[in-house]
Amino acid sequence: MKQRWMLCMAGALCALTVWGGAAQAAQIMPSTAPREEKHERHLQKIREMLDFEVKEGKITQRQADQIYADAEKGDFSGLRERKLVRLKEWLDTEVKEGRLTKEQADKLYKEAEQQNFSGLREHFGKKRDKKQDKR
Question: What is the average pLDDT across 78-93?
């Protein structure tokens, strides 16, 4: 009887150790599910942006599909190129409407090409301040 009790206790202790270790490991190494969910949301936003561009006639469905397929594989060069084209269009509009000079627009575009967005942040920050002043 004593041996049976010892065997049961050893089994229970072993089970608790394994189960506790698995629970502790789960706390130390978080699941990749949130990362995958974030990646899926990001891809969904890319798809929505590309669908909008197709709808507006800026790119063809074939181009959109290629950019999306590349993005799924981790190649965002096509997407980056599209974003730069959209930025250039927006900057041209800003120049036409007198909110930016041609030199400012060129400087902002060059910074964006080099992935330095501080100038754009400053420009948008000034706009936000003006909106807050009007309130």
Answer: 91
